Amino acid sequence: MKKEKKLIIKRIKRKIFSNSFMEKYRKSDRYFTRKRKMPFPSLILFMINLVKQTLQKELTHFINLISSGKIKNISKSAFSQSRLKFKPEAFIELNEVIIDEIYNEYEIKKWNDFLLIGVDGSYLSLPDSKELNEKYYRKTNHHENFTPKAKSSTCYDLLNDLIITSQIETPDCHEISLFSRHMDFLKEKIKHKYLFILDRGYAAMWVMLYILKEKKDFIIRLPNDWNEEIQNFTNSDEKTRIIEIVNCSFPSKKRLKELNIDFERFIVRLVKVILDNGEIEVLATSLLDEVKYPSLIFKELYFKRWGIETNYDHLKNNIQIENFTGKSELAIKQDFFANMFIMNLQSILISDAQEELEENNKKTKREYKINRNLSLGYMKDKIIEIFLKDSNVEYEELRQLFKINPCPIRNGRKFPRILYPRARKYPMTKKKAV
Fold first, then answer.
1. CB atoms within 10 A of CB 267
2. For the segment 263-295, what is each residue's pLDDT rounded down to a tens digit?
3. pLDDT tens track for 168-182
4. Rounded distance, CA 181 to CA 210, Å?
5. 3-class secondary structure, 406
6. What pTM value is reported for the model?
7. What's the chain's average pLDDT?
8. Distance CA 116, CA 197 (A)
9. Residue 43 in contact with residue 94, Cβ under 8 Å?
């Protein structure tokens, strides 16, 4: 029998309510020492309870929920002052509890004994404030409105639907500059074999050599004009070719120097993938064995990278990661890392329910999966009850709710990517009250 994920929930709960956790992440020894309406554990729970409506309504609802009506209200001002007293890294550590447990104590999905890892970045629209404008720059969008932006980067397990690590930085910080931070975390926390599947934004020789130096593997999509040899391969009849990289560009040499790596020749394999519309894509990979890894597998394998795109869609449109609860840099980082934790919390809850769903639907024609958007709605308040109570009843209730109205899996569907110009999606002055 597989180990249930509710054991992870219990470990997270112990950490949230421990004095050592509070002492580590409060900004001063003087903070959270007096009895308040919202002590440190309650502050953490409030921020992971999907706070998306007007802040005062959320606070009133939450304080009634955790006090069973004994406390009627807490002001928005009191919350704003309390949040100034703790570090956003608290949510990073809570996320690491999930990562440590999943990759050390549980069975995980793999491809040919590899974890499949995607890394990608995205811009986030921030609230308009003097503090954020000064650090996160004012950038123009298609409407010529000026809004501060942040660059986010996530390292994502494509088969197990988990954000292993995440970063938020100023918009001038390039995606591949954040890659080494993700790599440092992976080296420390993940002891399994893993295969990076990366888009052409990471098609740099220093990235390839860096991964090889760490004795890891990669598949990277290359731009058609990456170099002359790629163009020759694209125009040839070959399906695969082994090439030797004998030199690299000045930017790659500069990045390798920062990583204390000396450039040396290395070998990569080129694989040609023909899309359904006839277009040709070229992938570079460290999987050199053509018998063990024939060219035909790479089209489907690279397509698995799409999981990180759908994850960003879930973060932005369902979890509403850009729907911030404050206008300071501290509030932005607290919300960002809290939402990353929420996403992983949802994933581990879904995984238990998904196993039951698959077992119950063995005889159906189609495969079904848990509805991520609907299950997120069921988590509101229910996840707080799970953390506050010692029984397993609330966990089981939530798992049963997750199995309501599952989505049929329709393989092979394709949708064109349409970019619409728009203003900021979640204005601070127009929070929803319902």
1. 11
2. 999 999 999 999 888 889 999 999 999 999 999
3. 999 988 777 899 999
4. 12
5. coil
6. 0.91
7. 89
8. 7
9. no
